[in-house]
Design a protein that fits this description.
Blueprint (H helix, E strand, L loop, with lengths): L1 H21 L14 H4 L60 H9 L44 E2 L3 H7 L22 E2 L1 H4 L21 H6 L1 H4 L4
Antiparallel strand pairs: 1-2
Length: about 230
C-alpha cells in the first residue's frame, strides 16, 4: 500500500512539474511563427534571434540600446497615452521614451518603425544585405493609442489592494504565478505579461498568448481574463 501511495505521489509530482514547464513556450517555438523573420525575409543570418537581438555590438555597429541585447530600432513616438478606470488602483506610466519591455514590442507594433529596421543589418540567403526600413506593420495590427487598450507599464497591486479590487495577488515582483509563466517586470505589468513573443505554432499559442495556469472553471470561462480578474 505504501509503495502504491509513493508511486501515485511521484506520478502526481511529475505531472505538476511537466505541466508547469509546458506552460512556458521554449524559445525555439518562435520558428515558423510570425516572429520568424529569418524564414519570412529569406535571411541567412546565423540565427533567427538576430532579427530582434544581437549577441555582440562591435565598435563599428550603430549605437543602439543594450537592453535585452535589442537589435531593432526603437520608436520615437513621444506619447501613447494611458488607460484609466474607476476600478484601477495603480496608475500606468506613459511608455513614450522609456526603455521597457512594452516599448520593444511597440518598436514594431506602433507602425511608425519598419519591421526590417535593425541596428545590426541582416543578410539575405545570397549573403547580400537585406533592405532596411521598407516593411511596416499592417494597420489592423498596430497599437498607438493606449488609452483604449488593456493597461500596461503599471505596478501590479500589492496583496491588500489586489484583494480589495478582486485581482489575483502576485506571488512576487517577478511573476503573478510564482513560476514565471505570467511574468512581471520589476513588479510591473507589461505587454509580455500576457503575450510571449517567442511562442508560436509549435506551442499552440494564438497571437503569442501565454498559457495561463488555470482551474477547470477558469478554462471554461477564458483563463486569459479570469486568471488575474477573479
Amino acid at each position: 500500500m505504501k509503495f502504491v501511495l509513493k508511486a501515485a505521489l511521484l506520478v502526481l509530482a511529475l505531472c505538476v512539474a511537466t505541466s508547469t514547464f509546458a506552460a512556458r513556450a521554449p524559445k525555439s517555438a518562435v520558428f515558423g511563427s510570425a516572429h520568424d523573420f529569418k524564414t519570412q525575409l529569406g535571411g541567412a543570418s546565423y540565427t533567427l534571434c538576430n532579427f530582434c537581438h544581437v549577441a555582440h555590438k562591435f565598435g563599428s555597429a550603430p549605437v543602439g540600446p543594450g537592453y535585452l541585447l535589442w537589435n531593432h530600432t526603437l520608436s520615437s513616438v513621444a506619447s501613447y497615452g494611458v488607460y484609466t478606470s474607476d476600478s484601477m488602483r495603480s496608475t500606468p506610466t506613459d511608455l513614450g521614451g522609456q526603455l521597457v519591455v512594452s516599448n520593444l514590442c511597440l518598436s514594431c507594433h506602433d507602425g511608425t518603425v519598419a519591421i526590417n529596421s535593425w541596428y545590426e543589418g541582416q543578410a539575405a540567403a545570397n549573403f547580400q544585405p537585406l533592405p532596411q526600413g521598407t516593411l511596416f506593420m499592417p494597420d489592423d495590427t498596430t497599437v498607438r493609442d493606449l488609452t483604449k487598450q488593456h493597461p500596461v507599464n503599471f505596478v501590479y497591486p500589492d496583496a491588500t489592494t489586489a484583494a480589495a479590487i478582486g485581482i489575483q495577488p502576485a506571488a512576487d515582483q517577478f511573476s503573478v504565478d510564482g513560476n514565471g509563466n505570467v511574468p512581471l517586470f520589476q513588479g510591473r505589468m507589461q505587454c509580455a505579461t500576457c503575450h510571449d513573443p517567442h511562442a508560436g505554432p509549435s506551442s499552440g499559442a494564438h497571437l503569442f498568448f501565454r498559457t495561463f495556469p488555470s482551474t477547470p472553471a477558469q478554462t471554461l470561462t477564458g483563463t486569459s481574463c479570469v486568471y488575474c480578474h477573479l
